[in-house]
Design goal:
By secondary structure, this protein is α+β, with helices and mostly antiparallel strands. The chain contains 35 helices and 18 strands. The strands form four sheets. Strands 1, 2, 5, 6, 7, 8 and 15 form a seven-stranded mixed sheet that branches. A five-stranded antiparallel sheet has the order 14-9-16-17-18. A four-stranded antiparallel sheet has the order 10-13-12-11. 51% of the residues are buried. InterPro entries: ARM-like (IPR011989), ARM-type_fold (IPR016024), FAD-dep_OxRdtase_2_FAD-bd (IPR003953), FAD/NAD-bd_sf (IPR036188), Fum_R/Succ_DH_flav-like_C_sf (IPR037099), Fum_Rdtase/Succ_DH_flav-like_C (IPR015939), HEAT_type_2 (IPR021133), PBS_lyase_HEAT (IPR004155).
Length: 913
């Protein structure tokens, strides 16, 4: 099924031409859990089909290398019950201990099985497992000297002859949906496509095992690189989305994975490697600051707090270690864990012997193996959908790590092996939906490319979903992810590889929405930084020592259930699951976020009396061949003589392009030519000329020819042209009061506002006073502000505007008094206006009083500090600062220092300077 030409443009295949496959057990994902599931199911006699969207030889996080096992419960060194208790504490009591205990009790057997395959675990001189301690309780870390070869060893097992007879591997096949039976909902197969050839692939199966890894590509790394993630970047949440759309319950999705990492490298800080050798985490003072006993969300909260303090940065300290220890650490960190890490440090001139390594925290992700979020499974890896299993980082078995992935892959393969291939009909509606999901980007190949859409999506994750969380931000996230469904549906692709990336973006979006909605539903804080709600900062065991399950309802909505924690197998002091029935929560309610605080109604404007000028839609002709000639010519910065033929071309598109080129090159004589083009017959040419004149206004000489051309343009029945002409005339001082006053009779508000600004530039107070009766509120507001901006302002012309029926005009006129002066009579009017119903008027009145005498301004402003509107209080504080020489003003300002509004507090504090 592989093709050597992955970049060959594709066409949408007919669903009827799909490649059909059949098996007893379908395993999706060829990483840690998937390979073990396939091996176990085959050993028990099942015919297995293993699908991997890359190549099983080097797929999955395991292929990146593994330096050791984090949770090996080796007899004589640790007890299963101790491990279960530790994981329970690390997860704030929210665990199904029956699943954790499977890892604890079966993990050592898995170590021995891996050894039989050829995986090497470190042993001491006596042949005993060299288990090391990382946390303050329990010794569970078992190093793997040749950990970089684990995937190679597993692949060798898959290719043994007896396994090849039972296991069919299809590399470069990416499922996008699990198929279910329409009657009982059981899993009966999957639908996907070949990531090299693009062919549609349909599989019938007796059981389906999802082993696709975490959603590591959820948050955006600090580097901005889409694939520069802490987790394996191929892990885009495929299984989370497939399980959700198949009807399975997911749980703990609000519990994010956040890890400590090497800053700028996004690789792990490797506490599990360095700490057993004597390394540790310190702040810039060299102080150890970690209080938590387990690498958990609580520890990450401590980490984040230290990074946000004046004790930052934070470092991985290795420089105190002896040479031989540092050499041993380097041999692991620079080969197995991240082969590029040594080069990174070398390029920075850093050496563990002389430099401690700066640390930071990773982007967020979803991962059962390193936190708690995933598909809900029981102690046999069964999901809530019959015959659908989940294993590895995809499954919600908290802090399960690599050994847990192997254990649950083994459990899934064992239980699924009892089923035989499904031979019935597959539901056509499900197949059609999967087909559309895969191939819709081919229908509009010019659509937005996947990298752009994915970047935008994951920036929203960083902005609104990453902790610390709030209901408002999470609600904005849900709105954004819902809105982006259409953008994702509009992505374009031409090749099979691009189709794969587009499908991954749809999975990421699904996971992002799940993460946001689940975080909204859990109205408490838990797991330290993993789920820190600023609006619900306390941990609420009475109400929330429950699993939060989500699933897709029959109507297609995302709904939630609070599920009691199962009775503990191992008692843990400090935790007492309340039991009781499940609480059906339904759909989560979003927090209103459409406006910043209570909305004040905007004063209504008078009905407009000036109708907009109708402009015919331009007729766009086919591109003229001369456009290419013109574009080539522009590269040589042509003069007017060279551009002249194009400016006079019969094709308006060519003329518009020539005007734009003229604006870019600006040769001598440009101004008058552009002004002439303001009178062109074609709207696109006029628009280009107006834009160019505005852009070049600072560099055009104020020559008479340009002024003549601009005056002539005032007769053009095009609002944009007349507005631009007035703006340039004003800026270049080429007009007079009479010219500008004449423009006040124009029909368009935009033109009249420009005329007011022009009148201000020539200090035409009398003409401005006439404009105070303009029917447009926008113009009258401009007049009020303009009367305060002339060279010799006086309050008298503002009189009519202070009585204006529109509160926005009255507010602007009052504020203008601060610039014109506010004598006693006018101050009385301003003081009275502090009781106006409209906050804009009250704010303007408070502003006016800064120019009034201290008595009566200060007492009136002191009362205004109790106004319900923060902008009024801010205006009062700013005016009181002008009067700060008055003792009463200083007293009032001191009282405002604890105002609930940050601006008011900050400005009030200036009184003490």
């Amino acid at each position: 099924m592989d093709s050597p030409s992955p970049d060959t443009p594709l066409t949408v295949p007919d669903p009827a031409d799909a490649t059909e496959l059949s098996c007893d057990v379908l395993v999706i994902g060829g990483g840690t859990a998937g390979t073990m599931a396939a091996l176990t199911a085959a050993e028990r006699g099942a015919n297995v089909l293993l699908l991997e969207k890359a190549h099983v030889r080097h797929s999955g996080a395991l292929a990146m290398g593994m330096d050791g096992v984090n949770n090996a419960v080796v007899p004589g060194r640790a007890e299963p019950d101790d491990y279960v208790a530790e994981i329970t504490r690390a997860n704030d009591g929210l665990v199904d201990q029956s699943t954790v205990r499977q890892t604890a009790t079966r993990g050592f057997g898995m170590v021995r099985r891996l050894e039989s395959y050829g995986v090497k675990f470190e042993k001491d001189e006596h042949g005993e497992y060299a288990v090391r301690q990382v946390h303050r309780s329990g010794s569970y870390v078992l190093p793997m000297p040749e950990g970089k070869d684990v995937k190679k060893v597993l692949y060798r097992q898959l290719r043994r002859r007896e396994m090849r007879e039972r296991i069919r591997i299809e590399n470069r096949v990416m499922p996008v949906r699990v198929l279910t039976h329409p009657d009982d909902g059981r899993a009966v197969g999957a639908a996907g496509f070949n990531t090299r050839t693009g062919e549609f692939v349909v599989v019938r199966a007796g059981a389906v095992i999802l082993a696709t890894g975490p959603c590591g590509r959820l948050g955006l790394p600090a580097s901005g690189y889409l694939y520069g993630t802490y987790e394996n970047p191929t892990n885009a949440g495929d299984g989370y989305a497939m399980a959700y759309h198949a009807g399975a319950a997911l749980t703990g999705i609000e519990c994010f994975q956040i890890n400590p990492l090497i800053k700028d490298y996004n690789g792990p800080a490797c506490a599990y490697v360095a700490n057993p050798f004597g390394g540790y985490q310190v702040n810039r003072h060299g102080e150890r600051f970690v209080e938590s006993d387990y690498w958990s969300g609580q520890m990450m909260a401590e980490f984040a707090a230290e990074l946000a303090s004046d004790r930052a940065p934070v470092y991985l300290k290795l420089s105190h270690l002896p040479e031989e220890t540092i050499g041993a650490v380097e041999s692991i960190l620079h080969t197995t864990e991240r082969p590029t890490r040594g080069t990174f440090h070398e390029n920075r001139g850093h050496d563990y012997r002389t430099h401690d390594i700066e640390m930071h925290i990773s982007e967020i992700g979803l991962c059962g193996g390193h936190s708690a979020s995933g598909v809900r499974v029981d102690s046999h890896a069964r999901t809530t959908v019959p015959r659908l299993y989940a294993a590895g980082d995809l499954a919600s078995v908290p802090h399960n790590y690599m050994i847990g992935a192997f254990v649950f892959g083994d459990l899934a393969g064992e239980d699924a092996s009892q089923y035989t291939a499904y031979e019935g009909e597959l539901e056509q509606e499900q197949l059609a939906a999967a087909h559309e999901l895969v191939y819709r980007p081919l229908r509009h190949p010019e659509g937005p490319p996947q990298p752009q859409v994915e970047y935008k999506l994951r920036r929203f994750v960083n902005d609104y979903v990453a902790p610390p969380k709030t209901g408002a931000k999470l609600s904005l996230a849900v709105e954004a992810f819902t809105r982006m469904s259409e953008e994702i549906a509009g992505m374009g692709a031409r090749t099979a590889h691009e189709l794969m990336r587009c499908a991954e973006v749809s999975f990421i979006r699904d996971c992002a929405e799940m993460a946001a909605r689940a975080s909204l539903a859990r109205t408490e804080s838990r797991w330290g930084l993993y789920h820190q709600r600023l609006d619900h900062p306390e941990q609420d065991d009475a109400g929330w020592l429950h699993h939060l399950d989500l699933r897709k309802s029959p109507s297609g909505a995302m709904e939630f259930t609070a599920r009691p924690v199962e009775p503990y197998l191992v008692p843990v002091p400090g935790f007492a699951p309340p039991g009781g029935p499940e609480r059906h929560l339904g759909e989560v309610e979003l927090v209103p976020v459409a406006t910043a605080g209570p909305r004040d109604s905007v004063p209504a404007a008078r009905p407009r009396t000036d109708a907009p000028v109708a402009v015919e839609d331009p007729v766009v002709a086919a591109p003229h061949p001369r456009l290419l000639q013109l574009l080539s010519l522009v590269e040589d910065s042509p003069g007017l003589d060279a551009l002249g033929p194009y400016l006079d071309d019969a094709d308006p598109a060519v003329r518009a392009a020539a005007v734009t080129a003229l604006g870019e090159t600006a040769p001598a004589g440009t101004g008058p030519v552009l002004a002439a083009r303001l009178r062109d017959d074609a709207p696109p040419v006029r628009a280009a000329a107006a834009a160019a004149l505005r852009e070049l206004v600072e560099v055009l000489p104020a020559e008479a020819a340009l002024g003549d051309g601009l005056r002539a343009a005032l007769a053009v029945p095009d609002t944009a042209v007349r507005s631009a002409a007035l703006e340039v005339l004003r800026a270049l001082r080429l007009g007079d009061a009479a010219l500008y006053a004449g423009a006040l009779a124009g029909a368009a508000v935009e033109v009249r506002v420009q005329a007011v600004r022009a009148l201000v530039s020539v200090d035409a107070v009398a003409e401005l006073a006439v404009a105070a009766a303009d029917p447009s509120r926008e113009v009258r507001v401009a007049v009020a502000r303009g009367l305060a901006a002339v060279r010799n302002p006086a309050p008298e012309p503002l009189g009519p505007l202070l009585d204006d029926p529109d509160p926005l005009v009255r507010g602007a006129a009052l504020a203008a008094l601060a610039g014109t002066g506010c004598p006693a009579d006018w101050a009385a009017r301003a003081e009275a206006a502090l009781g106006d119903p409209a906050w804009q008027v009250r704010s303007g009145a408070a502003t006016a009083l800064r120019a009034a005498p201290a008595d009566p301004a200060v007492p009136a402003l002191a009362k205004a500090l109790a106004d319900a509107n923060a902008d009024v209080r801010k205006a009062a504080v700013l005016s009181l600062l002008v009067h700060r020489a008055d003792p009463e003003a200083r007293t009032a300002l001191a009282g405002a220092s604890d105002d609930p509004d940050a601006d008011v507090r900050a400005y009030a504090a200036r009184a003490a300077r």
